[in-house]
Every structure is written in structure tokens, then in C-alpha cells.
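Possible race condition, two jobs.
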Amino acid sequence: MTAKECILTRRSVRKFKDTPVDHALLEEIIETASYSPSWKHTQITRYIAIEGETKDRICKECYEAWPNNSVITAGAPVLMALCMVTKRSGFERDGSYSTWREDGWQMFDVGISCQSFSLACHEKGLGSVVLGIFDQQKVTDILGIPEGQELVALMPVGYPDEEPKCPKRKPVEDLLSYRN
């Protein structure tokens, strides 16, 4: 599969088969995602693979604001938590900001890693979806995310049990402009 084919065919999957995801496959996907570019090569993204009772607890306790995310997560064999090491990407060694974006650059880096992870999953036949509505503090507590790291997103992962259609895309002329 070419990079273009991977990008054009990847969809957000919300229904998964019961089939477990082999840990060696997850490790291969993380290794691929580790090649994502990052600010000064800081590689701040960290991944936690969540299964079993911990995943069930997150489903029950952490999606009150958007209950459908609980249904999606419950149906996936693995829930990935994407975290970031804070105060590295976009920062100087003395802790000051490197750019006018201040601490915003770290979210940019995790976003790049998240996309790389999603595409690597797709290439290996797995589906994923990025979830942003959940009780961040409760999930942080359940997972024991250490000080100096912050939970950014949750991603249910598994073998797709649906083939979502491609949503309509804006034409290039709406997305691209030129300046001389």
C-alpha cells in the first residue's frame, strides 16, 4: 500500500470484531509511529495499551459526557491512551517557551504521532478512532499516569467490523491559497 492509498482509505472505525490484537503487532505499530517527526526530536508521545478490567472500568466511569464513546471502547479489544511528556516540545532547557505558540507545540507533536499510529494501524489491517471526550482526570487516575506526563487522547483499536464510507471532502481550491 502506498502512503497515498493508506491516507485515502483510512477511516475512523467505531465497530470492531472480537478478535484480540497481538501484542507483537501493537509493538510493531508503535515502532513505526516512533519515526514521527517531533520538535527537536523530543519524541514526547507515550502509549498505554489498555485491556480487560481496566478498559471495562474506563468504559463504566469515564464517558459520562459522551456515552457513545463507552459503547465504541467496549467493542474494541484494545484501548490506547496517548500521553505526552510535558514541558519538552516547544520549550528550551531552562523551561522557557521556544516560540510564540508557548506550550501548544507539544499537542502538535502528539497529533503527528497520533496520525502516524492511525495510519500504521490501518496498514496492518486494524481500525482506530480518536476519542477526545472523556473524563481526563479520572482516566489519568485509573491509569496512574505519572507527574510530568499528560493524557491527550484515547483510541479504541481492533479489527474493523464495518467499512465506513469516506465523508465528503472540501475541494483543493477551498483548502489551498497562494501568495506572491
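Job #2 (started ~2 s after job #1):
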Amino acid sequence: MRATVFLDRDGVINHRIMGGYVNHRDAFNLLPGVIQSMVWLSQRFRVAIVTNQQGIARGLTDPQFVRDLHADLERQVVEAGGQALEYFVCPHHRDAGCACRKPRAGLLNQAHEVEAVDWEKSFLVGDSDSDIAAGASKSVTTIKIGEQGEPAADYTAASLRDAIGIVERVSSR
């Protein structure tokens, strides 16, 4: 079993497009310090990106574009000294009732099927209440980027870079 850091994508790794979708390269803008943060995390933990991408179901985002975008992000992390990343994507519409769409824990369970997750030593970093609910359902330590919501996260941080300090403190206990 391995400790895993689950990261939401939009709003944690890249700027969230309010009311829109990342469906072309110009719309995927990394937040400050993300590559360095992902390098640090990937050198110490398994890193799994867990992301709802309903734009695929709505026909607004091409699934191959999403795969290419993720491959490019991973390339940047590896070139900067990090380890390979894993991606778990829910392509379904929010009303589809699937098991993988956060706040359900299906994406986390998929990661566990690939390689057993040490839930007690794992983290989920997200910017939405549905992210935090998914992590809480598996009893991982949750870190919310932004303000506290419902359900309450274990910790809050201003950015992924700031979340690193929390991960470092909590994992060294």
C-alpha cells in the first residue's frame, strides 16, 4: 500500500474557467508554483489527478485533447525532476448518476484498483466541496484550496504550493 496525494485539476493545478471548459490549449493556464509543487509531491508520494470533466459528455471537450493535455503536464513535471503522474477522469454529465463523479469516491477507488492506497496516510487537495466530500468518504486528509465549505476540509490553503506545507507537516507525524 502506498500513500497517495489526490489532486483535483481545475482550480488546483490550473485556473478554473467559470462557466466554461478547458477545451483548447490557451484555456489551460497553470497556477503559480504548480510544477514545482507537483515535483515535490511526486518525489515523496504517488500523485493521482482526479478530475470531473463533464465537457466530454456534453461534446464540448474532446477526450483525446484531455489525454494530450495530461501527457503534456506530466512531461513538464518529469522534465523538472518529478515522477510520473496518474490520471483518473470522470467524463460523465453531472446528472448521469455515475459512481466516478465527485463527490462520489469512484475515481479514488479506481486509483486503489490500480495500486492499493494507504488511505490513512493519503491526502486529497481540491477546490470544491465535492472534492472534499470524495476525500472525506475515504477518510483521507482533505485540504481545500480557498475557503472552507460543507463538508469542512481538514485544512485550508491558498494554493497547491501552500498545501505542500500542510502535507509535509501532517505526513511527518
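The first helix runs from residue 34 to 42.
Logs attached separately.
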